Amino acid sequence: MDISKLSIADLKELQSTIPSELSRRQKQAKAETLKELRLLAESRGFNLNELVSESIAATKNRPPVAVKYRHPQDNALNWTGRGRQPTWVVAFLKDGGKMEELAV
């Protein structure tokens, strides 16, 4: 769609209709996806709700990950070493610190 030739009024009207149309389509796509997932689960002899609840339960039953790194001045700032480095770790390293200094 080439919007370069639309008037300002037309662009504003389009801008105001986009959020509701986007929301409507997202709801529709979610409903279709859920239906497809239910059919897939049933075709393999499973109930989708059971599969999802088992998956959630397995995630909740995991023991917490031990802290591997802690800020030298603020014990409230800690990190397990998983995922992105927290901003305090990035700043510490940028200031010349070493990861070994943060190790618990």
UniProtKB/TrEMBL annotation:
Question: Cellular location of this protein?
Answer: Cytoplasm, Nucleoid
Keyword hit for rRNA-binding: no
The protein's name: H-NS histone family protein
What domain of life does the UniProt record list for this protein's source?
A: Bacteria
What positions does the domain DNA-binding protein H-NS-like C-terminal occupy?
59-104
Higher taxonomy: Bacteria, Pseudomonadati, Pseudomonadota, Betaproteobacteria, Rhodocyclales
User: Which SMART domains does the annotation name?
Assistant: HNS
Entry's family note: Belongs to the histone-like protein H-NS family.
Say yes or no: keyword Nucleotidyltransferase present.
no
Keywords noted in UniProt:
Cytoplasm, DNA-binding, Plasmid
According to its UniProt record, what is one Pfam family this protein matches?
A: Histone_HNS
Its main localization is cytoplasm
